[in-house]
Amino acid sequence: SVVDGWPTVRGIESDEMRAVRQRQTAVRDRIERLKASSEDCEDAEILLLVHDLQAAEDRLTDLEVQRKQVRRSEVIASRVQQLRTQHDSRPLPDDWAEQLDEAEALLASGDNAAAETLVQDLDRQLKVARRADAIGELEQIHADLIGFRAPPSVVNELSEYLTELDTQPERPVDAQRVQRSTERLETLVTQR
Questions:
Q1: What residues contact 45, with CB distance under 8 A and at least 6 apart?
Q2: Could you give the CA distance from residue 191 to residue 183 in angstroms, rounded to a whole number?
Q3: Which of 43, 64, 89, 149 fits a 20 to 30 Å CA distance from 138?
Q4: Nearest C-alpha neighbor of 48 from the set 67, 65, 66, 30
Q5: What are residue 93's phi and psi, to 5 degrees?
């Protein structure tokens, strides 16, 4: 082609020609990256061959956007499945299954943004429910420790931790702390 051969025949290259060649190289690189990801880039390759760089760049941009949307959709679908599994394994709010169905319907319709918003809301609900369950468990352990006349240092430590959780609603419950408190209670029960 004229663009490819002109600099080598004349032995010079203008800034404009250099810019065109750099764009061609960039398009080839993008095509190779997409092909390595199993994307069909035939249209972009043909456009590059006929030296329609702008159309080739536009087609590659479209392919990249589609690829990102597919990956985003897959991530959201995976998270919906994880939430559904958690719903099946433990009691959660009544409308939980319906909301998961709605998220899947939104994904199927291509509305990734709405599906993602709904999944994020479900994630927040799950965190709140888990936190409330863990605090309830700690409060029961606390009451049992008092009932079994645990050493004051053990009771006070758990009391202080429950107070911290109460004053910091965004703070997650430390699972190790729950485990340690459970073990202390079990040890106390076996000793008595």
A1: 31, 56
A2: 12
A3: 89
A4: 30
A5: -50, 150
87-to-61, 125, 168 alpha-carbon distances in Å: 39, 12, 27
Distance in angstroms (rounded) separating the CA atoms of residues 82 and 123: 10
Which residues lie closer than 8 Å to 129 by C-beta, 6 or more apart?
92, 93
Pick from 8-12, 36-40, 80-84: least confident: 8-12
Distance between CA atoms of residues 178 and 174, nearest Å: 7
- Give the H or E element holding residue 183: helix 175-191
Please, which pLDDT band fits residue 7 given cuts at 50, 70 and 90? low
pTM higher than 0.85: no
Q: Are 145 and 158 in contact (CB under 8 A)?
A: yes
Residue 182: band (very low, low, confident or very high) from pLDDT cuts 50, 70, 90: very high
pLDDT for 63 beyond 90: yes
